[in-house]
Amino acid sequence: MSEHCVPYQRKALYLVLTVPMIVLYLAIAAYLWTVNIAFVVIYGACFVLVAVLQGYICAYWQCPYVGRFAPCAGGFCLPSSQIARLFRNVKKSETTYNIVAMFAFLSLLGIIAFPLYFIYKLSILYMLAYLGIVVVYTLAFLLLICPVCGTRYVCPGGKAAMKLRESISIDASKEEGNNGQSA
Hints:
By secondary structure, the protein is mainly α. It has seven helices and no strands. The model has no long low-confidence stretch (mean pLDDT 85).
């Protein structure tokens, strides 16, 4: 990865998408606090794990955003890009990377899935709204943020975003071709 990568260009859009998610995380944590403090600790631990593990991943990829603003899904790179500086001189291997990436993904799933039961107990409509917000955020992130990120060719999310955008443009091209033939 080039360390001479320009700073991320869509910072304002990233913040518009991500700040509401951070507010949602805080609201969920506040609700979990009312249920049982242990659940807040578990939920919070998932965030810490994602941030630290993502820091290793950033260092492994030699992310051009290490130590600077980094456009990571869910807002986790806000601390991760700083944490990655701690891993710059650590010996890295593909095996360790794969293990770290797996645990980072599982922790991310924990952030999304752990509160589902508690939100469901509150109201099925809240749970459906929560899942809808997660889906909309994920799609918006993949379509608007990932395609211009400096790590889009190594990051699993970036790769998925590029394939998604490619399939959308292929479908749009086919649609335009079909419209042109029927005229």
